[in-house]
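Q&A log
Question type: sequence-to-structure
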Amino acid sequence: MESLNEVMRPPKRPRPYWHVDAKWISGLLLLVALSLTLFVNSLAAMTAEEPAVETISMTMALLTSRNGLDDETEIAAFRQQLQQSPDRVFQPFPGLPVTIREADLVGVAPRELRLRLWRQFARPLYRDGAEGLAAQIEDPEMAAGLSAGVGPLALFSLEAHETLRTARNLLALVCLLLLALLVLFSFRFGRLVSPGVVMAAAALPGWLVVTLLGLAAQREMSSTPPGEEAGITGMANYLAGHLLPLLIPHAKGLYGLCLMAGLILIGGAVVGSLIWRLARPARR
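Response status: OK
Response body:
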């Protein structure tokens, strides 16, 4: 026989049918927005000043070192040029604001020296852009060529970084709005499961791609550039093998955090649902 409390309890109001549709729509929109946010955040992290300067420096060092970053031949030539300079200062790339002083050669490996040189080029390129750096170049022909653009390296600039940060912040606001709607239209522990599933689904593909690229970057790369017979593919692999280790750590962070947060929400909802089901007979 039903107890008096069960008889007097008002009947439960069924959920409006359109709540289910609204939940799915807001969840799918959140999945798209969060995926874009994570991707743009990775680009913003990779284009911050330090990783961007190191990427530009490494790229230029690789492209201008015909015998590899560790070759001593060009460094020996630099030493000879310094000995001939009255003020012990040498400009290895005429027209570019890159200089070597005698003290720079003391106790420095060829690879590190090359990177030090190209950081002098990379930092103003990052901060001022191609046109700003072109204004510092004495050679008019070289300045005109630089003003025309620097190709993919244009992504690694302060202007691009600020644009990406603004886009990321706007996308994050959209994600918060959609998350609030998803929670509102979900029911009971679905208010944990739904955001958790979306977060995990948005983060998992990017996390897998970044992780696989990180594993590929750990393999030992040749210290000398490929020959002409390797073609564009060989040079692309050579550049990627040296650049990926610089960029992957900055791209991976938020993907892992988002994936972990999504799994925690799903696990918490499962545990909470089990506890609620076990405690329900006791409440009766």
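Response note: The radius of gyration is 28 Å.
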